[in-house]
Amino acid sequence: MNCLKTTLATVLALAFTAPTFAAEVQVYGKANVSFQSADEGGDSFTELKSNASRFGIKGDLKLEDGLTAVYKYEIQIDLADEAGEDNLKSRNQYVGLKGGFGEVLLGRNDTVLKQSQGKVDLFNDYEGDLKRTWKGENRMGDSITYKSPKFNGFQLGASYIAEDEEDGEDGLSLALTYGDKTYKKSNFYAALAVDNEVKGYDIFRAIGGVKVAGFKLGFGWQTQEKVDTDDDQDGYLVSVAYPVGKATLKAQLQNLEDNDTVTVGVDYKLGKKTKLFAWFSNFDIEGGEDRDYFSVGMEHKF
Q: Which residues are CB-neighbours of 67 under 8 A, at least 6 positions away?
């Protein structure tokens, strides 16, 4: 922990005091805190939740021969209840190079299968996050990530995860994407992705999204198989978002075999980087205890 604090303090000092370095550094973050009521199989309680609030530093530096050095150092901060060592968690942290060949990143990073979800998951970082039901939302250390240049809207990505021990297994994640997941350059987004031996699972995922008549519609399908048992499961996801003035209405259905998750919510803009939000999630678990969550909160980005 002391090493982490020392490293962060050093990077911050460079970011704000070194004139030759400041132009390449971007300090950013997000504070997201909510009041949440939970009913888990009849057990009810309330709490404050810090929904993946984070702080980061990223940037790039032009080199010779058309190359650019890129870097990111991001940590998750609990603004609600955790303190001390439990308050900070590592997120994406890497260094790499980009150029005409594409981009290569070394360090801890989201797999390209995880990144392939784009923006179809409307309740990312909340209880209704698709990771609550589907496998494959992995952020892996000991990884090398490659992304090709875009060709007519298509881009190929790969994540290689080293085994890190003598008896371990290498992992590989591959993704082919098309379009723009933010719908700024294109009204379409699509992705096909696979994981092989990543955190004990083989996965195939197909994602699609479209923006039409103000609606943002998202679709997903996944099959996942546990490597050591060959147990496999299939599931789907459908999401829709629609703006009404400063508000955005959202709904999402996610399925895995006989388990369903339904989430509805609304975001209300207070400014370009600030919003209020509320949502409700219901988990219908076959053979298990159903769960309900209701949350209201605020998010500010910087």
A: 97, 98, 99
pLDDT of residue 11: 46
Q: Residue 19: what pLDDT? A: 45
Rounded Cα gap, residues 78 and 86, in angstroms: 8
The total number of structural domains in the chain stands at 1
Q: What letter does residue 228 receive in the DSSP assignment?
A: T
User: Rg of the chain over CA atoms, in angstroms?
Assistant: 20
pTM for the full model?
0.89
Range of the domain at 108: 2-301
Checking 84-92 for CB contacts under 8 A at 24+ apart, the result is 84/1, 85/1, 88/1, 88/4, 91/54, 91/56, 91/139, 92/139
Residue 199 φ/ψ, nearest 5 degrees: 50, 40
On the 0-12 / 13-18 / 19+ scale of CB atoms within 10 A, 135 is buried
pLDDT of residue 10: 45
Measured between alpha carbons, how far is 201 from 134 in angstroms, rounded to an integer? 11
Report the SS3 class of residue 20. Answer: helix
Can you give the CATH number for the domain in which 88 is found? 2.40.160.10
Q: Which residue has the tokens 């309740």?
A: 123
The DSSP string of 159-202 is EEE---STT---EEEEEEEEE-TTSSS-SEEEEEEEEEEETTEE
Q: Report mean pLDDT in 10-residue bins for the chain, 302 residues.
A: 47 46 78 97 93 97 95 96 84 98 98 97 97 96 97 97 81 98 94 97 98 97 95 97 98 96 98 97 90 98 96
Residue length, the chain? Answer: 302
d(CA 18, CA 34): 37
